[in-house]
Amino acid sequence: MEIFGIWVAAFLTLCIYSFLYRDNPFYRFAEHLFVGISVGYGIVISIHQGFIPFAWEPFYAAVTGKSLQGLIKLIPIGIGLLFFARLSPQHTWLIRYPIAVLIGFGAGIAIPTVLRANIFEQTRGTVEPFAAIHAGTLSGWGIFEAVLMVVGVICTLTYFFFSVEHRGPIKWLSKVGIAFLMIGFGSAFGNTVMGRVALLIQRVDFLLNDWLGTIF
Amino acid sequence: MDRRIVFILVALAVIIPMLFPVNLPVSVSEPSQKLYDYIDTLPPESTIMLAFDYGPASLAELNPMARAVLKQCFNKKVRVIGLTLIPDAPTLANTLIEEVAKENGAVAGEDYVFLGYRPGGNLVILGMGTSIASVFENDYNGKVLAEIPMMENITNYDQISLLLDLASGSSTETWILYANAQYNLRIAAGVTGVIISQMYPYLQTGQLVGLISGISGAAEYELLIDTPAKGVQWINIESFVHLLIVGLVILGNIAFFIRNRHEE
């Protein structure tokens, strides 16, 4: 059975790579199969590990009187079911309630944590090295890094500051900001290439060692 | 030049070093070292959480690092709670944990437990901050959490020394937002090449205690635990492909300038 699985995986891998020559029915077959299986698998897992334990079982226990604690869960289940109101043109307006709950809850839990983790902590991280410079505990390289980071942050933010016209010093600051952005994008692109090549290596490793290993 | 020639060259740059391996030097970066040191200094019987937030498409980069970290934990007698926030991952993650556990003599329920998947993302993270059992009433195999020996004294994040998120998407940021900022849980990440750049700001501020970066990070970690495996083998092959890509970029630019001059 394991060998059969390896052969199926090898066939589908070759089908996908056949696209490098040109588009063909084998590639399309493998692509559609992948998309279909991914969606189907995701739905089944979500039903078994999400819907059944969190919605169906409490609901069933509540309506059959096995667990009265489950009654409280009927409220979120009821609100969630209102999403299906979208299917009836007469009752579409009911969908506003679950969306309002989701947005209200989402914003309520996200805003304080986003402010703390992404604004306050990042600002602290940017200016904190200057305390070390003041205390004289930072090396020459560390001082250079700290100054470079602040210059990068200010220039990049200036590039995205559209309330004033980009002329004179603002124009030059935003140009330096563009250079920092380009370095960032270049780094991200280089890392992406590394990731994609790793995927290719893993597939070639599979074909050479696992698949051909079943033949030779 | 026909682009298919480039594909053939890239294929050769992968196949030849795979058939005739060459060992190039690999140096360990500071973020990988930090994570290794953090886990290494944990006392035995400590517990870490390992979030397998990646699917089959990112398995090539993240499985080698997951394998290396699991091996380090099992050898150090650090207990592991595995879980995932994405639906594609449970089967892959469970298979990997059981495989590594078998190789290192770790026992299910005593040295590790895999909780599986629950939908909800940030709600799952927030829920576990109060009570893990309120989100995962049982483990992946259906065993009630209260009956699992290693979960006996574990209620929430207060008993967890570290969460390592192995991620191919934005899940690490979600863990930082809701587990670190809200509950002060220490977070580390192992990520694919695509998202490494987004992680460095969190590393600099200390919101991440360590970072394993793509396949190169996996190779570094394998060297740190003194068990070179797929990561080290693949990063050597990767170096040849990178050399080829750099060569092609230079060649492309030369051709571009020659053609421009010719047209002028």
Describe the protein.
The complex is a heterodimer of chains A (216) and B (264). Chain A has helices spanning 2-17, 25-63, 74-81, 96-135, 140-159, 169-215. Among the domains of chain A are: 1-66; 139-216. Chain A is mainly α and 216 residues long. In chain A, helix 4 runs antiparallel to helix 5 (140-159) and helix 5 packs across helix 6 (169-215). Chain A is built from six helices and no strands. The longest helix of chain A is centred in the C-terminal third of the chain and has 47 residues, at 169-215. Chain B is α/β, with parallel strands linked by helices. Helix content of chain B is 54%, strand content 14%. Chain B has helices at residues 3-19, 30-40, 59-76, 90-104, 122-130, 132-135, 171-183, 196-205, 214-224, 230-263; strands spanning 47-53, 79-84, 112-117, 162-167, 187-191, 208-213. Chain B has a six-stranded parallel sheet, sandwiched between helices. In chain B, helix 1 (3-19) runs antiparallel to helix 10, helix 3 (59-76) runs parallel beside helix 4 (90-104) and helix 3 (59-76) runs parallel beside helix 9. Chain B is elongated, with a radius of gyration of 21 Å. Chain B starts with a helix and ends with a helix. The model of chain B has no long low-confidence stretch (mean pLDDT 93). Classes of the chains: A mainly alpha (216), B alpha/beta (264). Chains A and B meet through helix 2, helix 4 and helix 6 of A and helix 1, helix 3, helix 7, helix 8 and helix 9 of B.
